Amino acid sequence: MSLIEIIRQAVSSLAANKLRSWLTLMGVAVGVFSIIAVMTTIDALDRSVESGLASLGANTFQIQKYPATVFGSGHRRNIYVNRQDITWREAQAFRKTMEQKARTIGFIISSQANQAKSGDRTTNPDVVLTGGDEHFAASNGFDVKIGRNLTPNDIRSAKNTAILGSDLAEALFPASDSPIAKQVRIGGEVYTVSGVFTKKGAAFGQSQDNFMLIPITRYISHVNEKSSLGITVEAWSQKEYARTLDHAIGAMRLARGLGVREENDFEIRTNESLVESFRDIKRSISIGAFIISFMALLTAGVGIMNIMLVSVTERTREIGIRKSIGAPKSSILRQFLYEALLLSLAGGLIGAAAGAGAGNIVAINLQLPPVIPILWVAVSMAVCSAIGVAFGLFPAWKAANLDPVEALRGK
């Protein structure tokens, strides 16, 4: 028999037992679905990293109490929790030391899950309330669309003025209603809107525009004076970046009163550290998803072997007839091997399509660009092929080595 005839015969045999074939290939589909769905979502996140890095401006790094992500045991987490907060006094001392060694030095402090209200409009309790200074916009890659930025006088006087992120402005004020000079209530305090930032978009699945910026001095005196500050430093140029970073570490150690032998009790957040943190998360999730999917595929492989053994038993007379008219062992072997391979690949294709669709639905809901994980689809198809061949080989070998006389008797 030619290759096309063998494949046609394999398809016909599988179609004759539709329910059994579907149940078997769905086992493969589940295993492929899990890895493709996870990797599609992760690849979408990966592609958003570049836009996410815009949260820090060019040649910029941030000093803060906690690292960007925390892995490890509870003991490791406690190390960061037990650190002293970065205080306003320490931030001021840091600025005094670094003011000639950096282009800008900005301060930031924020709290999550706030609800904003203006007139009869109220937002969901997911607004970020941020305290910052006049350097916040430049240091974090924001531009003022309408109105004005914070001024040094706003900071000195701890004014109750606010600049809105574009998402928050759209939620509280219709497009025809300018928010400038309007009042917004948040956390029991009332603020007068002096500006609105240009829309920045989502990063890592989170909106960067659903926030309200107020003077950091106002935040400390009226919202929470015990929160830890973040210090954003912009170097003069990329060439001066490494030197500025070294100076900043020394200045922060001095401001914190650390001895020569004491380790840093603060973290440096750079674009590179954010990428590395994301890569660590991606690596861990990928390994976990691959292990789970591999176990599911092994289980599906056992199902393929089982259905092929049943098929060999049911088609013993057919095999005997083919052998009696001169069919070689290789032809019988290939036929049953192709049936197992077709089952596995069909399940893999269904799982890949469903996984890519599910992953992109998640990505779109997280405001991430849709992607097709071609590499992982190719890897999944290769693994499915290996599973089909490996678990279909024994039933195919058994069919090829049946004694034709015994097979014709139906035994």
TrEMBL record:
The keyword Membrane applies. One of its GO terms (cellular component) is plasma membrane. Keywords: Cell membrane, Membrane, Transmembrane, Transmembrane helix. Residues 290-404 form the ABC3 transporter permease C-terminal domain. It comes from the Bacteria. It is found in: Cell membrane. It is a multi-pass membrane protein. The chain crosses the membrane at residues 21-42, 287-312, 332-354, 374-394. Pfam families: FtsX, MacB_PCD. One of its GO terms (molecular function) is transmembrane transporter activity. Residues 21-235 form the MacB-like periplasmic core domain. Belongs to the ABC-4 integral membrane protein family. This is ABC transporter efflux protein.
